[in-house]
Amino acid sequence: MSRFLVLMYHMVSEPKERRDARFACPPALFERHMAYLVRRGFRVVSLEEIHSALTGGLSLPDRSVAVTFDDGYADNYENAWPVLERYGIPATVFLVTDAVGRTNHWMEGRGFSRRRMLSWAQVREMSDRGVSFGSHTASHPRLTELSPVQVEDELVSSRRVLEDGLGKPVLSFAYPYGLVTDAVREAVERAGYGLGCSTRSGFNRRETDRFLLRRIEVYGTDRVWRLAQKLTFAMNDASPFYPLKYYWNRALARWIGKGS
Fold this sequence. Notes:
The chain has helices spanning 27-39, 47-54, 74-87, 120-128, 148-166, 182-190, 224-233, 242-259, and strands at 4-9, 43-44, 64-71, 92-95, 132-135, 172-174, 195-197, 216-217.
């Protein structure tokens, strides 16, 4: 295993407000993303397979990538799941457990649209058909602003609710807003999770801290060429000129090295 990528989505639906555009990937575009992964020979793996690889029990194939969704929007069931099943793609959804069957309350008053979240019936149906679920805390707080006791409660209670609701162990966790400190990371490990997903971009390797896995955020405005560039360079932002600049700088560095 040389390296692997983890993709991060949120909503799979049309944006309703201007600020939704970053987080809401239109369903037709999402399908083109998944078709691209399959067509270009990426090996889409589960977080469970990644955990086995990082803990020594499994070797990941080349060009491995995992697909994850943060928050647990109802459109993940309605629009994303049928596409995932059609292409045979495993995925993990990180749930805000207090929001199951409710709405995205943490986004209220910030210019985002109000969205329905997954119900427990939808979560169980998806879980029974192979979708994995992880924790995104109980209430989607900024963990770095909470006391140690509050952090522990968010981590432990959400995991317990998920395991009770699903009837199976919960392996993975994703940090709300990507906010994490050493203390928060250690609390995630103590709470019994096996993996922690950040929002820091980059490739993951065997030596990567499995509680600080890097993820590539896929924006709702990312056309397929942008996704391709993000997969190539393991970066959140993409531009038509970045590859030219990247390869020019590499060529320049080699030329300077030969002359030294």
